[in-house]
Amino acid sequence: MISVIIPVRNGEPYIVEAIESALAQGDCVREVIVVDDGSTDATIASIQAIADPRIRLFTSRGARPSGVSGGRNFGFEQATQPWVMFLDADDRLRPGACSALLAAAGPSDAVAVYGDYERIDAAGTTIGRRRLLGRRAKPEGDVTEKLLAGNFLVNGGVALMRAEAFRKTAGFREDLRYCEDWHAWCLLAAQGEFLYVPGLCVMDYRVHAGSTMMAKRLSFDDYRPALDAIYAEPRLTKNRAPERLRTLRQAAEAHLRAYLAAQAVRDRRYLSALQGLVQAIITSPSKALRNTALVGSAAFGI
């Protein structure tokens, strides 16, 4: 039923835990496709030591994958199941998460079904207070405009995606370094409806110094190429009035600025956080409450 796709490069510290969390989902996970993109540590040996026939390991020694998007795209090309999940090599799935998502999808025509996540540190200990959000509502149905206004999905590891629909997106843009997943989710949303499962924690998102989002201090300019790509995509912009697109883009820019401000709060760079929040409010005054809540929640560990 499900192909779990894990791109990895020098992921020795966490890759075994990620793979084992996918295998532990039971019979609903028919294959775990691991795409190694030139690891120089013991990643490959660690994977080969796991004795489970569902693991399909591909290495880049024969070329192709370059970067996380290349790895995901290559892994998707190998997938044989009707549902796919893209799991990062340093994250882990919660027990029973995949079967719960499948059950929620039921006989619907949804192109994606998703839940929520929790944050963990390098040692795997829960950090923050996201659990206080409980059974909060998140977007479902036709979520295209919701995604155009900001990436509420955050991480693809929280979702099952229908392979047939994802194939029509043409995959992840390999020329985008950041927010390439947001671009793909927008295109997927244009294919059909999303379902949300309230109260279901699907995965643990690991926050550590070596992760892509933590390895350097990002600015809005790092995200701008993805924002430009999304709003240059005819499949997303057609049949939407210029004024509506302008409003959605302003909301998306404000959301990115608020996200950066929230990260600054977590890093205890409070002046930068305040400046970022002010920029977000100026960019999209109508989203001021939402973005203030986003930054404020970071102060409370949510």
UniProtKB/TrEMBL annotation:
**Keyword Transferase assigned:** yes
Show which residues constitute the signal peptide.
Answer: none
> Which GO molecular function terms does the record list?
glycosyltransferase activity
Which Pfam family name is an example for this entry?
A: Glycos_transf_2
Record-level GO BP terms: single-species biofilm formation
Which UniProt keywords are present, listed alphabetically?
Answer: Glycosyltransferase, Transferase
Enzyme Commission number(s): 2.4.1.305
Keyword Iron-sulfur included in the entry's annotation: no
User: Can you give the residue ranges of the Glycosyltransferase 2-like domain?
Assistant: 3-168
Q: Which SUPFAM superfamilies match?
A: Nucleotide-diphospho-sugar transferases
Class in the EC hierarchy, top level: transferase
What name does this protein carry? UDP-Glc:alpha-D-GlcNAc-diphosphoundecaprenol beta-1,3-glucosyltransferase WfgD
Name of the gene this protein is made from: wfgD_2
